[in-house]
Specification:
By secondary structure, the chain is of the alpha+beta class. It folds into 2 domains: about 90 residues, Beta Barrel (Ribosomal Protein L25, Chain P), CATH 2.40.240; about 80 residues, Ribosomal protein L25, C-terminal domain (RNA Polymerase Alpha Subunit, Chain A, domain 2). The chain contains 5 helices and 14 strands. The protein has a 7-stranded mixed β-sheet, covered by helices on one side. The radius of gyration is 26 Å and the shape is elongated.
Length: about 220
């Protein structure tokens, strides 16, 4: 997984006055948990741009000069009106200790089921996993180029020995749901056969068409 370096300074005071002064100066107060004791630091708000305003997941290297700490973002607070970053919590990473993280899902390709009138439902845009830091993936890439109407992709197809997905195997990640105007097509040959059969039925039973249509409704 890609890492972003955040250059900051360790905070000597963590009181309300000091915190307010940091924010007024354009800095974000932060805490790193998971070590022997919480580590308080601050950094320029612009330093978090590539970490916060992106759909990708990243690890973080907190650079405090003499100390460099590897971590992941655990929680973030925004101002309810201005959307400015108010506070960020990080969790320190250790090579031999598993960590829980939400990994984004990316869809690849175009589903034939959508072209035939079905509706694509993206059920899980992120998946929670547990893994060692060096085994964390950047994304879950899912190929939907073979999904027909009624098909779905579940967590079971994404299982990997490098990590544990913290959702039931039957959890649907993406599916193609039928709509009233959708046309279910299995393959080209079958589609041609269906069209031919419909043509014969129409020619031989013009007088019954209206009644049949009502019964199908």
């Amino acid at each position: 997984m890609k890492s972003i370096t955040i250059k900051g300074s360790e905070r000597e005071s963590v009181g309300k006055k000091a915190t307010k002064a940091l924010r007024n100066a354009g800095k974000v107060p932060c805490v790193v948990y998971g070590g022997e004791k919480p580590l308080h630091f601050s950094a320029d708000e612009l330093a978090f741009r590539d970490l916060v305003y992106t759909p990708a997941a990243h690890t973080v290297k907190v650079d405090l000069g003499k100390d460099k700490i590897r971590a992941i973002m655990q929680d973030i607070q925004f101002h309810p009106v201005t959307d400015k970053i108010l506070h960020i919590d990080f969790y320190q990473l250790f090579e031999d200790k598993e960590v829980t993280m939400n990994i984004p899902v990316r869809l690849q390709g175009n589903a034939p089921g959508v072209r035939n009138g079905g509706r694509l439902l993206f059920r899980k845009r992120k998946l929670a996993i547990r893994a060692l830091p060096d085994k964390l993936p950047d994304f879950f890439d899912i190929d939907i180029s073979k999904l027909k109407i009624g098909d779905n992709i579940t967590v079971e197809s994404l299982l990997n020995d490098d990590f544990t997905i913290l959702h039931p195997d039957t959890t649907v990640v993406v599916q193609i749901k039928t709509q009233r105007a959708a046309v279910v097509v299995e393959d080209d040959e079958e589609a041609e056969g269906v069209e031919g059969a419909e043509g014969v039925a129409t020619e031989g039973a013009e007088g019954e068409g209206a009644e049949d249509g009502e019964s199908q409704e």
